[in-house]
């Protein structure tokens, strides 16, 4: 059963604010190209756009099912979104140009990457919106949530940025449906921003608790079949009560 507030089909929202710098214009052009492609090839359903603050630092956290998730988020969220992209994709030149036009942060996967972390914290410190998946990789086997990593909780604690939970589903079957000449239905649901309770420089067990809070916020936005290891977590039921109150 789909959760209350399941997204309805909509056109992609325009960017908030004006694009003045060359980098802003390059991002806007790439976003427009992505929007046109999604609109032509897919049926995209978005809910909760009104929950995106128009300005100020913001840490967007989301589940990860497909390579389509980051570009879908970039066109669905009405602000410039900076995301992490694995270094392995840097060798694919057309993709590298497109990724860099979106001002993505290249990151080494499965190992600490201090330069990428500094770029991310700097982006938040200057009032930017940073998108990250706590799972750290795509959930390819079950297409449901897998245990989250502590990176986003660390970023939220160090930066003090509010957290914007986002749920995406339907993208895991998109390429299969396109291969069958069908327009896939893609869903994106945006929750209300929240802050971690005095996270500061939390570490260890406390950081793990904050990570569970982040994952429960994402799970509460997803249909039950996508909640995975958080399906029966009491924090999900609590988040749902808050959403419906």
Report on the structure:
With 245 residues, this protein is an alpha/beta fold. It has a single domain, classed as 3-Layer(aba) Sandwich (Glycerol-3-phosphate (1)-acyltransferase). It contains eight helices and eight strands, in the order βαββαβαβαβαβαβαα. It has helices at 22-41, 69-76, 93-101, 114-125, 151-159, 174-179, 205-219, 234-244; strands at residues 8-9, 43-47, 58-62, 81-86, 105-107, 129-132, 163-169, 185-190. The longest helix is centred in the first third of the chain and has 20 residues, at 22-41. It starts with 7 loop residues before the first strand and ends with a helix. The mean pLDDT is 89.
Short summary of the structure?
This protein is an alpha/beta fold. 37% of the residues lie in helices and 16% in strands. It is built from 8 helices and 8 strands.
Shape: globular
The share of residues in helices is: 25-40%
Structural class: alpha/beta
Number of domains: 1
Query: Which homologous superfamily in CATH is the superfamily?
Result: Glycerol-3-phosphate (1)-acyltransferase
CATH topology: Glycerol-3-phosphate (1)-acyltransferase
In the CATH classification, which architecture applies?
3-Layer(aba) Sandwich
Mind summarizing the main beta sheet?
8 strands, mixed
Strand order of the largest sheet: 1-2-8-7-3-6-4-5
CATH class (first level) name: Alpha Beta
Rounded to an integer, what's the Rg over CA atoms?
17 Å
The number of helical elements comes to 8
What is the number of beta strands?
Answer: 8
Quaternary state reads single chain
């Amino acid at each position: 059963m789909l959760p209350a507030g399941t997204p309805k089909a909509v056109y992609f929202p325009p960017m908030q604010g004006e694009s003045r710098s060359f980098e802003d214009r390059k991002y806007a052009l790439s976003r427009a190209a992505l929007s046109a492609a999604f609109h032509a090839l897919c049926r995209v359903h978005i809910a909760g756009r009104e929950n995106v603050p128009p300005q100020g630092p913001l840490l967007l956290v989301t589940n990860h099912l497909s390579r389509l998730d980051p570009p879908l988020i970039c066109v669905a969220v009405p602000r410039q979104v900076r995301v992490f992209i694995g270094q392995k994709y840097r060798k694919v030149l057309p993709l590298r140009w497109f990724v860099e036009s979106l001002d993505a942060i290249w990151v080494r996967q499965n190992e600490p990457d201090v330069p990428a972390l500094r770029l991310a914290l700097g982006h938040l410190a200057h009032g930017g919106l940073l998108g990250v998946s706590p799972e750290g990789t795509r959930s390819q086997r079950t297409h449901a949530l897998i245990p989250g990593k502590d990176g986003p909780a660390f970023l939220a604690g160090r930066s003090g940025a509010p957290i914007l939970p986002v749920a995406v589903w339907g993208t895991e079957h998109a390429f299969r449906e396109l291969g069958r000449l069908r327009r896939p239905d893609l869903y994106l649901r945006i929750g209300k921003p929240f802050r971690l309770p005095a996270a500061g420089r939390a570490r260890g067990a406390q950081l793990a608790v904050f990570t569970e809070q982040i994952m429960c916020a994402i799970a509460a936005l997803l249909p039950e079949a996508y909640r995975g290891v958080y399906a029966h977590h009491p924090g999900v039921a609590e988040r749902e009560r808050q959403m419906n109150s």
